[in-house]
Amino acid sequence: MNSFTQKNDTLHAENVALNQIASEFGTPCYVYSKSALTHAFERFSAGFAAANHLVCFAVKSNPSLAILNLFATLGAGFDIVSGGELARVLAAGGDPKKIVFSGVGKSAVEMQAALNAGIFCFNVESASELNRLNKVASDMGKIAPVSLRVNPNVDAKTHPYISTGLKNNKFGVAYEDALSIYQQAAAMSNIAIHGVDCHIGSQITELSPFLDAFDRVLLLVDALEEHGIHIQHIDLGGGIGICYSDETPPEFNAYAAAMLAKLGKRNVKLVFEPGRALVGNAGVLLTKVEYIKHTESKNFAIVDAAMNDLMRPALYDAYHDIKTVQTRSDQSSALTYEIVGPVCESGDFLGHDRKLALAEGDLLAIMSAGAYGMSMASNYNTRPRAVEIMVDGSQCHVIRKRERIADLFALEAVLPKP
Ligand code: LLP
């Protein structure tokens, strides 16, 4: 389902032309499609309809309250990695009983907040964390529901920065150590073992790494059962990739069918933590061409969005398709451009070698920017973060105002006069 389509040579989000959005709300501007978000969630869940399951949206991929609220309304749970994300989910009306808490560095304060909220499960990533959680829960007179995040040591075949399931990553406990740490957990007064968790990486475009990881997790679940430790749920993390250019990630229903076939007759709830697959292609970053500059070797289109707005190209050399919002009739004038932002770094680019027919003042849409776009935006170069708009049919809603420059130093102070 693509909710960003060309109509009469103009790119639209649902029924609204993107140039209209730019003239009303300015640029740079993130634009999301409510129907694309809704369909992605519904399609993901549909594959598991026959099974006991919970889809926990990975908040880090896009923590907008409006998006969390939409998913909560659709019945989603949430995968969080900080006390801040917990607070956001609760503020957005998310159900605490559907929250899983991942991350290698949970503080005691974050554990207390999650125990107070009554979350579904802590995904514990080390023996030390387990000890701390037991102590925190015991001081509060509570029992902490726990999965251990095991590291199945499979190669997710993705970018090394976003691959997490290999032995040398900081994530999870080594597969070989899992049984003994589960036995320690079983002996702890304020820990209740609920599940097994794994997450092997992000932007995975093949099924096989998921299947290999699931095989290893199932072996562990069976071994735990033999040792008298009963597992109620298996959390398979997130990681399904999206199409940025020509990738062919697994279809949701093929992924679901393969997972359910492997699960067989075991009476276990399945939990998933998709982020990118639900929001990535439901958002674009709208930007305006400020200047065109020709040098001896390159043509530059300098746009008003930058690496602080969308960090993925600079950080991972990630590819995002870039489209003109209005197609020019003189396509013969197309040149190959470097699409770059105003930030003072050579790494500040949004796309290399893009053949486009452009003029100053034109609008561009950086596609597939719904995941890890605004969520990784910063104020580098004292640039206010962009406004965010959600389109619903023919209506536009501001879901986050553009920051004002004064906001950016409101928390600062200069030293008192001597
Ligand atoms: N669960 C856990 C424990 C995770 O660490 C992540 C992502 C997810 C779920 C969601 O993964 P997804 O379904 O979105 O692939 N900033 C990078 C991606 C970092 C992913 C970190 N963890 C990027 O822009 O590509």
Explain the overall architecture.
Helix 5 crosses helix 6 and helix 8 runs parallel beside helix 9. The model has no long low-confidence stretch (mean pLDDT 96). The chain has 2 domains: 158 residues, Beta Barrel (Lyase, Ornithine Decarboxylase, Chain A, domain 1), CATH 2.40.37; 170 residues, TIM Barrel, CATH 3.20.20.10. The protein is built from 12 helices and 21 strands. Strands 4, 14, 15, 16, 17, 18, 19, 20 and 21 form a 9-stranded mixed beta sheet that branches. Helix content is 28%, strand content 25%. It is of the alpha/beta class. The structure holds ligand LLP. Ligand LLP binds next to helix 10.
What's a quick, concise take on this entry?
The chain is built from twelve helices and 21 strands. By secondary structure, it is α/β, with parallel strands linked by helices. The termini are far apart.
